[in-house]
Structures are given as structure tokens and as C-alpha cells.
Amino acid sequence: AQTVTQSQPEMSVQEAETVTLSCTYDTSENNYYLFWYKQPPSRQMILVIRQEAYKQQNATENRFSVNFQKAAKSFSLKISDSQLGDTAMYFCAFMVAIRDDKIIFGKGTRLHILP
Amino acid sequence: KAGVTQTPRYLIKTRGQQVTLSCSPISGHRSVSWYQQTPGQGLQFLFEYFSETQRNKGNFPGRFSGRQFSNSRSEMNVSTLELGDSALYLCASSWTGSTQTQYFGPGTRLLVL
Fold first, then answer.
1. B window 48-67, beta carbon within 8 A of A
2. End-to-end Cα distance, chain B
3. A85 — phi, psi (to 5°)?
4. In sequence order, what are the residues at sequence separation of 6 or more whose Cβ sits closer than 8 angstroms to the Cβ of residue B13?
5. Please, what's the b/e burial string for A41-72 (b: 16 or more CB within 10 A of its CB; e: otherwise)?
6. Which of the four, A42, B27, B47, B100, has the lowest number of CB atoms within 10 Å?
7. Which residues of A sit within 8 Å Cβ distance of B?
């Protein structure tokens, strides 16, 4: 069974700083997808970034980037130049490619960006 | 393009009642997945529908059921409600499921008294 672990329940950083959210996962599959979703206080879940396991290059989306270490089964999210609007719950998520349409989520990290 | 919509947004029921929640996917999306979000258990997968067929199911009791219509709209039903069913129910849609990114709706907040 696949599991996703986020070891930081809550974090706070000052605006404009860089913050890294940790995520580890466990799977015996070789072909899968990893995601970071953001859920602001308004509750709408938004996709932040997606990584295909077969790609060695780390995905980036503007200020958001990941450090994907397949052998270590680690998938951290780095937010550069953090903004107040980044305040949200962040979920790391996993999905087996092709076979599954089920996303397995971590418990989440609540991120506070302080002015 | 309109996003995923869910109705109603808030719902209050009492134990033993049943409830039906609705989800309209993004236009053109044929896969709809449902998730339950609670503070204790986090986000848990309920089931996924594609072309009116349930393709995948999570570890929930039979009281939780769903269906999908020909226009890809989906409903989920919970019968004989329990206090523990109080949660935010999220619906997500994607083009075909599997390798496609899922886009989430705002959720339905269900409170069981």
C-alpha cells in the first residue's frame, strides 16, 4: 500500500523568505505521479505543481519548485519569495500512473506567511 | 471555462437521515472522484467514476454510494448518517482520470447532528 508522510504539521515564515515543505512516500510502484496541492482558508483545493516519476528533472512553476529524490522517495516543495497569499494548507499527494485514479494524500502542512 | 461546482455548499442533517451531494465537472472532463476530508483522517478517497461506471473505490462502508450521469455530472449518497460522517466532501474532475491532473471543487460541508 502506498503512503504519504508530511512530517511538518505547521510552519511559519516571514514574507519574502524561502520555505521548504517536506514529503516522503512509500511505494513499490515505478511509474507514478506526485503532486503538491494548496488549500487556502477558503477551502478550494488548487494544484501547485506536478511531477512525473519517470522525469529526472525537477518540476518548477514560477516561485514553486520541487526537489524530487526518487531513490530516497522524497518530494519536497520549495516556495521562494513567499507571499501572504501563500498562507494555506499544503498537501503532498501520490497517484499510481495508468492503473489508478485514486490520489493518496499526506496529512498536510499548515503554512503561515507572516507580514 | 467554469470550474468544478458542488451543491449544496453547506448541509445540516441528523443521525439516521440520508443525504445526496452533487458535483458538476469541468466541461469535457469525464472522470469524477470524490474525497472525504476530516481533521482526524485528512483526505480520503471515496470513489471514482468514468463514463457512468465506478472504476475505483476506497475503504468506506456501503452506506456511501455514488453514480454518474451521461453528462458526467456525479452524485454521492450517504445513507443512515452517523456523527462521524461530518466532513468536507470534495469532488474532483479530470479529462480521463489516470494520468490526468484532478481539479477540485469547493466542497460540500456536511454537519451531522
1. 48, 50, 55-56, 58
2. 37
3. -70, -5
4. B19, B81, B110, B111, B112, B113
5. eebbbebbbbbebeeeeebeeeebbbebeeee
6. A42
7. 33, 35, 37, 42-47, 50, 91, 97-108
Taking contacts as CB-CB distances below 8 angstroms, the residues of chain A near B92 are 45, 103
What pLDDT tens digit does each residue of chain A (115 aa) get? 789 999 999 999 999 999 999 999 999 988 899 999 999 987 789 999 999 999 989 999 999 999 999 999 999 999 999 999 999 999 999 988 766 568 899 999 999 999 9
Check CB contact under 8 Å for A102 and B48. yes
